[in-house]
Design brief:
The chain starts with a strand and ends with a strand. Strands 3, 4, 5, 8, 9, 16 and 17 form a 7-stranded mixed β-sheet that branches. The chain has a 6-stranded parallel β-sheet with strand order 12-11-10-13-14-15, with helices on both faces. With 340 residues, it is an alpha/beta fold. Helix 6 links the parallel strand 11 and strand 12 (209-212). It has 2 domains: 2-143 and 305-338, Quinone Oxidoreductase, Chain A, domain 1; 146-277, Rossmann fold, CATH 3.40.50. The protein contains 11 helices and 17 strands. Helix content is 30%, strand content 26%.
Amino acid sequence: MINTVYRLCAPRRFEIAFSELDVNAGVIVRPTHLSICNADQRYYQGTRDAKVLKEKLPMALIHEAIGQVVFDSSGTFNPGDRVVMVPNIPCEEDEYIAENYLRSSKFCGSSADGFMQEYYQIAPERLVKLPEDIDLNVAAFTELVSVSVHSVSRFKVIAHNRRERVGVWGDGNLAFITSLLLKKMLPHCKICVFGISREKLSDFSFADETYLTTEIPKDMWLDHAFECVGGNGSPVAIEQIIGLIRPEGTISILGVSEYPVPINTRMILEKGLRMFGTSRSGQADFRKTVELYREYPEIPLYLSRLVGNVVEVNRYADIKEAFEIDIKKAFGKTILHWNI
């Protein structure tokens, strides 16, 4: 079976390539809804290190996507089933290291072709069936939601059980999703969100408290915190967290920064703080995310606020247009209806 692949070959330049799919191996999925991530944009705009771009391009982008099953040689799924695709591709198993942290694992849109393809061949265990009534535009960025699920799940194991007040730094997509999941997965915790935009913070209606980072009360304290800022804002966010968190609290780092971030290790030592990083997610996190969609129908409803631009991709030229539109967005996710 001949498949069409749309690969980024240089910043802002796509090319069409062809691959051969074996219909007797795994599941053939037709991608239908794709979501653009900041990582995709760093490749598209060429803001990654030149050496990285040279090593990885040409490559099909996008790791946030859902699709419909076309054919399943294993009989696990039926044609037409709506599924979310797990972009992490483990090559081995480890007793202690999760699949998303194994250095040998591949990842769609980073070390392997992503989902910008006419069809995608995938193992049945890397698919999770979606609820029939799910908002497909929301389901498109389930991968991002699963990263927050992964972080909160790890937090529940790592952090001590005094969880009266948990802070979330950031007012973007990741902070919105993480604070929403904290509210559902840890319902007895008071969730406080700290951001720089009063307008964006007004969307966090499910949070117990919201604060501008320039107007934090002097008597503020936290048991634990999540950093969802990334980029140039990470140093300030982490410094504020270290200052406000109680001794032996836990800090979860989710924000991605291209450059090293200075951290006040003296106060980490004095307070005996725990700090852990979260990157990507695995099959179990996707399954947990879909379970949460079913258990709490209000989660997809809240997440629909993040659906920003919706772009119909019917031809090759629409791909570049979609990425250019995404650059200009102020908030939310750009969803591609993949009709090409």
